Amino acid sequence: MNFFKKSPFLWAFLISVFFLKINSFEIKGVWVTRWDIYSPQRIEEIVESLSFANVTDVYVQVYGSGYAFFKSKIAPLRYRDFDPLETFVEKAHSRNIRIHAWINLLYMWDRKELTEENSHILNRYPSSVVVDDKNVSLLDYSFEKVKSRNIEGFFISPASEIVKDYLLFLIDEILVNYNVDGIHLDYVRFPGKEFVYDVFIRSDFMEKFLIDPFFLDSDRTKKLFGLKGNGILKSEWEIFPKEELNILIKEIFTLVKTHNPNIKLSCAVFADINVAEDNFHQKWIDWINGSYIDYVLIMAYASSFKVIEKQIEKIQSRTSLSKVVVGLALYNQSIENLTDNYNHLKKYPVLGFCIFSNQSLTEKKGGYSYVGKKIFN
User: Fold this and answer.
1) CATH code of the domain occupying 29-374
2) Backbone angles phi, psi at 184, to 5 degrees
3) 132: closest CA among 64, 186, 202, 230?
4) Which residues contact 15 (CB under 8 A, 6 or more apart)?
5) Furthest-apart CA atoms within the chain: distance in Å
6) Is 20:346 a contact under the CB 8 Å cutoff?
7) Which element (helix H / strand E) includes 188?
């Protein structure tokens, strides 16, 4: 103790190390969208800029709208003259940046006219598209109706065995052929609460409970099972679509870890856990607590840190923040405001922070340098 009294510089050093530790996050990430990886030259520019910004992890979108941005044998290719994922892996690793292959898992198309590519999943398996509570496939909605419902586009069902095999094959292609550090999933959810009546989910439910969920409110069902039994069945139906998503995540996790236990499986999720679960059947808290995902990136895209704080504290009440990366948006706010939000939020014991997106960073003059000095320093 006398030694410490005589050595104030040692105290100062220890205190500085302590604060460095609590503010030094494992992940300092950026999402890179598929629209930004259109040439080898552009990818090299991006990686150089991300290195300048002290980025540790980059999440590169390599499967979106049903198209692959890598050499896939099952999905249609967006580019045939070069391999965006191969180029990104090479350039990122040369700068000691970890690369995660970002996959839009269940969201497959977002335009009025469907693609004519025969190998596209919507043309291969149109029956895999989700169905609403009126027994109408989302594929039969007009594009105007889709957009009026604030739905991004056409989604496929996680309960279809064909869909599962397709997605697992797609991910396996990446794991086998590319030296990625992680698989990053997006759109692991339904487009809305009511889009859970496809034949695959209904069949799974009927196999387990001997009743079609379409008839849970019928007089015949109430008479057959009684009010109490009918209530139990309805409760089971409420959690059933969430379980279908859980099963898919577990299968992907097993595939990834069987290939290489060091490869990380992550997922972009809604920051508000109630909205995620109640509106989209995305109960991602189960994924963390069940240890079949390495971590999540919450899309905390509000421009107010107070909103994000409430979301984080709600999460903290149900699980550890050690598997949570806070995703901050740059498209809807100034870089100064994002930095202010970061400074308010870095007190939480999260795994790190991630910025959406590289495209927005590029549009902000001096954005990479600013991030490197003020956020990822």
Assistant:
1) 3.20.20.80
2) -115, 120
3) 202
4) none
5) 85
6) no
7) none
> How many Cβ atoms from other residues are within 10 Å of residue 85's Cβ?
24
Rounded to the nearest 5°, which phi and psi values hold at 191? -75, -15
Averaged pLDDT, 220-249? 94
C-alpha to C-alpha distance for 377 and 374, rounded to whole angstroms: 6
Q: What are the φ and ψ backbone dihedral angles of 118, each rounded to 5 degrees? A: -65, -30
Domain range list for the chain: 29-374
Q: How far apart are CA 267 and CA 31, in angstroms?
A: 12
For the chain, what's the residue count?
Answer: 377
CA–CA gap between residue 103 and residue 61 (Å, rounded)? 6
- At residue 330, what is the residue type? L
Distance CA 82, CA 357 (A): 23
Please check the confidence at residue 196 and state whether its pLDDT lies above 80: yes
Answer whether 214's CB lies under 8 Å from 135's CB: yes
Residue 76, φ and ψ in degrees, nearest 5: -65, 145
> Quick count: other Cβ atoms within 10 Å of Cβ 225?
17
Q: What pLDDT, on a 0 to 100 scale, did the predictor assign at position 7?
A: 53
Radius of gyration over alpha carbons of the chain, in Å?
A: 23
Q: What share of the chain is helix, strand, coil (3-state, %, to 5)?
A: 50, 15, 35
Name residue, tokens 């003059």: 365
Gap between the Cα atoms of 297 and 100, Å rounded: 12
Inter-axis angle of helices 40-52 and 84-94, nearest 10: 30
Is the CB of residue 316 less than 8 Å from the CB of residue 348? yes
Q: How far apart are CA 346 and CA 333, in angstroms?
A: 18
Residue with tokens 């990430």: 29
Measured CA distances, 34 to 61, 174, 358 (Å): 5, 16, 11
**What pTM value is reported for the model?**
0.93
Of 186, 375, 190, 154, which Cα lies nearest the Cα of 299? 186
How would you write 24-80 as a 3-class SS string? CCCEEEEEECHHHCCCHHHHHHHHHHHHHCCCCEEEEEEEECCEECCCCCCCCECCC
Q: What is the mean pLDDT of residues 29-39?
A: 98
Position 19 pLDDT exceeds 80: no
With contact defined as beta carbons under 8 Å apart, do 305 and 341 qualify?
yes
Tokens 């198209």 appear where? 67
